[in-house]
Amino acid sequence: MTDTVSVKNIGLRGVTVADTKVSFIDGKEGVLVYRGYRIEDLARNSTFPEVAYLLLYDVLPNSKQLTDFSKQLQDAASIPTYVYESLKLLPGDAAPMDVLQAGVPLLAMTDPELTDDSKEANLRKAVRLIARLPMLVAAWHRIRQGLDPLPADTSLSHAANFLWQLQGVKPSAEMARILDTCLVLHADHTFNTSTFSCREVVSTRAHIYAGVTAGLGALSGSLHGGANAQVMNMLSSLREEQDVTGWVQKQLANGERIMGMGHAVYTTMDPRAKFLKEMALVLGKETGEEKLVDLSMQVEQAALAEFEKRGKTEIKPNVDFYSASVYHLLGIPADIMTPVFAISRIAGWTAHIIEEKTGEAQEKPALYRPKAEYVGQYCGLMGCEFIPQEKRS
After folding, report:
1. Around 376, how many Cα atoms within 13 Å sit in the side-chain half-sphere?
2. pTM across the whole model
């Protein structure tokens, strides 16, 4: 034991804990790659089901493979009645992420392959999870409004179907396309906190649903997936602000954060944020809410100018900054934004879980077991003297 804490590995920042073939980030250059493919190419040219297939199977699907995979997603898009009935028993003001985290174990209980830990079975379970997480989110939003959940519409795409089940209105082709691109952008991001949580849990040989449940818990935090809702709350509070630059300066002077700014890995603009900014501009015009997008841009410009003055040029908009505006303009409530993040990230989570379980691309012990530095009370190897309760002062 030492008297001081070594800060070298605190928080595992910069520590390599395993190998992976799923995705890669170059934070200095602003590069994000899924299975070798740049996020820019995937965002412009692919769909979420195609990207989910890529993440799970390590190859882009041909036409037949994509058709078959999309059919598997559609066939899996059903939730047992007891799950809906269970949701109806929950408090109406329950946080959607808590409901989602409670719902996944409910789905596990009747999965016919729950105890089959083969790669093939886990791939099928991954398909079921990708198909059903959006349904859970939409169902809860309907139930808490006193409405019945809506069945899946097989004529709609994966993204369009979620908006239909959430809102009860068929979305425009443009809105469905934009949400689909958002799902592509959020599908994976290497060993972020929630993904590491998934992998750590299943390294114990826990089943895939347990790993996903852990990932949901990590994602719910305001410093991770919950940050997009925090950005939306910030923008909502600034709608009547006359001096956005002054507000930003005051926030930073008081040691407060500008939500959606800065990243643990990127030292340049998050490559996903560029697409989200473009989509926010498109949606602002389509919905007539250009003011919200203008406000986002004002906050961004003011924050970047202040960070420049402080010599913190590495702090740029992250994925949450403009995703908040995009989701809001798609008609998604602020407290549903993090669950939408989850219905995308489930593709990456399950790909990482399967990689962890199969031992592919890894150089690590079977079980994650980091070491902590003890800095508490120490009375030598014999331990502190135990004093009976009646004699303690």
Report:
1. 4
2. 0.91
